[in-house]
Target: Thiamine-phosphate synthase
Amino acid sequence: MTLRGLYAITDSQLLAGRFLSHVEAALEGGVCLLQYRDKSDDAARRLREAEALLRLCERYGTQLLINDDAELAARLGVGVHLGQTDGPLTPARALLGRQAIIGSTCHASLELAQQAASEGASYVAFGRFFNSVTKPGAPAANVDLMEQARAQVKLPIAVIGGITLDNAAPLVAHGADLLAVIHGLFGADSAQEVTRRARAFNALFVS
Ligand SMILES: Cc1ncc(COP(=O)(O)OP(=O)(O)O)c(N)n1
Ligand SMILES: Cc1nc(C(=O)O)sc1CCOP(=O)(O)O
Ligand SMILES: [Mg+2]
Model:
């Protein structure tokens, strides 16, 4: 499967009251990967919401990943995104199997990306590239990193952090495969605007 295009990530606060309608609107516009990101410890709600997202993803042919939680990913038979403090990659790969998509946060570090590749990651994620409303304190990354990453890491590259339609094009031009976006996609006031933004993010990959 080619990992290239929009990588939509949910945010439980931002999507409160419009969770499934905004996610479906994004899928309508085209989403390569969808990540369920919920930082609460409400296990029952997390399971319910992740199951609902999986049903939607199956209808639209989109791959679902769970943020942080390899056990929940295994329960649903989907992928997982792991940060540097979310547990090691190797056991997650063993748990989820060879086909599962597993992503790894690498901040601005080529060393972390090489390690993730050697431990079986499916893609590496660099960020934060811009000011992020969602995660203002995330370590900063710079576009100069992309060229070295392309040369040294033979995996799809996801970029994240404050990405909007106004600033995303240079990241794609520098070799990003996946634009991972929360606020720049789901911060829209209407479902129609979410769909329009999703289409416009994907259009950046058509050369
Ligand atoms: C695609 C993608 N890239 C990076 C992250 C951040 O992961 P992490 O550092 O574990 O931070 P949290 O998202 O868990 O707060 C991500 N989720 N997705
Ligand atoms: C979850 C996350 N991780 C980041 C990192 O740099 O690792 S930045 C970030 C927030 C992404 O949301 P938005 O598109 O609203 O900025
Ligand atoms: Mg995490």
The first strand starts at residue 5 and ends at 9.
